[in-house]
Amino acid sequence: MERYLKKSILRDLAEKMVILGGPRQVGKTTLALSLLPGGSESHPAYLSWDAIPARKMLLRGELPADQPLILLDEIHKYRGWRNLAKGFYDTGKSRRRFLITGSARLDHYRRGGDSLQGRYHFHRLHPFSLQELGSAVSRETLAQLLEFGGFPEPFLKADRRHWQRWQRERLTRVIHEDLINLEHVKEVSQIDLLASVLPDRVGSPLSINNLRQDLSVAFETVDRWITILENLYVCFRIPPHGLPKLRAVTKERKLYMWDWSLCEDPAARFENLVASNLLKYCHWMEDNEGESMELRFLRDAARREIDFVVVRGRKPVFAVECKTGERELSRNIAYFAPRSGVPLFYQVHLGTKDVEVPAARARILPLSTFTSILGV
Predict the structure, then answer these.
(1) Residues 12, 75: one domain?
(2) Are residues 334 and 370 in the same domain?
(3) Which residues, other chains included, contact 367 with Cβ-Cβ below 8 Å and sequence gap of 6+?
(4) Residue 286 lies in a domain
(5) Domain span at 34
(6) Final residue before a domain boundary, out of 68, 102, 124
(7) pLDDT higher than threshold 80 for residue 336
(8) Minimal CA–CA distance to 171: which of 195, 204, 155, 199?
(9) In a 3-state reduction of DSSP, which class is residue 143?
(10) DSSP state of 240
(11) For 46, 76, 79, 152, which has the most beta carbons within 10 A of its beta carbon?
C-alpha cells in the first residue's frame, strides 16, 4: 500500500532535504525504503544510526558512492546530528538527495550546532485513516481500524493477541529506549506509569493537578513529563478556542493518544480516532501547503462543548462533534452556531445518516464521508 505522503516527499526531495517524523512503527522506514530500488534495508543508501557499521561510516564523514538518494534513519539519537546532516547536505546537495527519518519529534529536538533552517522540508507521517485505506471502505474495515488502531502492523494483522504483544513491546521501546536516549530523566518508571493512565483521560479536559496527586510529584513535573510524551509521539494535547462574545474556557487542554486503540471506552476511542484524523489533516495542510493550522475545541463556562474546531490562520474553518450513533443535531451545535462565528459544523457518527441542517450551518454525516471531505 502506497502511503499518502510518498508523492509529496518525492516532490520536495527535488528542492531540499526532507525530514520525516512520526511515531515509532508508524511506517516511516518502510515509506523511505520504498523510494529506493528494491526497497530493502540491505540497500547501501540506507544508513541507520542503530547499525554500528553505518554509524561508524557517518562519524567518519563518509557516504556510499554513486547513490542519488541517501536515507538517514534514527540519526537524531546522535547529539550532533544537525551539524552532521548540514555538512553532508551543503557539500553534496548538487549530487545527492537526503531523507532523514526518526521516531522522535525532529522539529523539537534541537541538540545544538548550526540550524538546518532553509535546508529542509518537514513531513509528519500519521497512522492509517479511512481515506488512506481506500474509498470503498466497509463497516468491517472501520471496526478493524477502531479495534486495532491505525499503526500498520497491528491493523493489518487484525489479531487481538498480536495487538496486545505489539502494544507492550512498542511502549517499552518508546519509554525505555527513545526516552532515555533523548531526555535527561531519572523517573522512567513514573513516566511509564503516567503513559499507562493517560488513555483513561482521553476526551475530557486534562487535570494536571489530579495527575500530580496520583503520582505524588509537582505540577510542573507532570506537565513536563506529558510534554516529553508528546515529543515522543505518544499523545497530543489540544487547547480551547477562545471566543470574544462568549465566556469560553481558555486554559484547560484536552488530551488524545496517537494510538486510539489504547482507549477502552468505545465513545472515547471514536472521539480519539476523529481527533487523530483532524490532526492528520492539519499537519498535511501545514507540511504540504504551508498553512498555519491548529486543532482546538470549544467549551464555555456552562460546560457546553464542541469536540473540535479546526483553525486556519487564527480563524475557525469548521467544527466537529462526535456521536457514535445516528442522532438528531446536537444541542451544543444548535447553541454555538449563532454565537461562535464558526462557519460550518459537522456531526460525525458511525452510522449511515447524511443530512444537512441549514439553519445551523451543519451536516450530520458518517465518518467515512467526513474523511473523504478532508482528503487524508
Answers:
(1) yes
(2) yes
(3) 130, 142, 273, 274, 348, 349, 350
(4) yes
(5) 6-124
(6) 124
(7) yes
(8) 195
(9) helix
(10) B
(11) 76
Strand 17-21 and strand 120-124: the pairing is parallel
Q: Please give the Cα distance from 124 to 20 (Å, whole number).
A: 6
* Count, residues in the chain: 376
C-alpha cell at 273: 480516532
Same-domain status, 230 and 298: yes
Q: Which helix (H) or strand (E) holds 230?
A: helix 219-231
Q: How far apart are CA 148 and CA 157, in angstroms?
A: 9
Helices (H), the chain: 6-13, 28-33, 52-59, 81-92, 130-133, 139-148, 152-157, 160-173, 179-182, 188-197, 208-215, 219-231, 266-289, 331-340, 367-374
Residues 6+ away with beta carbon under 8 Å from 159: none
Q: What is the pLDDT of residues 57-98, one digit of tens each?
A: 999 999 999 999 999 998 988 888 888 999 999 998 889 999
Decide which of 23 and 115 is more confident. 23
242 with 319, same domain?
Answer: yes
pTM over 0.90: yes
Residues 58 and 91 grouped into a single domain: yes
Q: What is the pLDDT of residues 3-32, one digit of tens each?
A: 999 999 999 999 999 999 999 999 999 999
Query: Do residues 325 and 179 share a domain?
Result: yes
Which three cell numbers, joined as nine digits, stand for 213?
496527586
> Domain ends where: 94, 124, 154?
124
Beta-carbon contacts of 85 under 8 Å, excluding residues fewer than 6 positions away, are: 17, 72, 75, 98, 100, 116
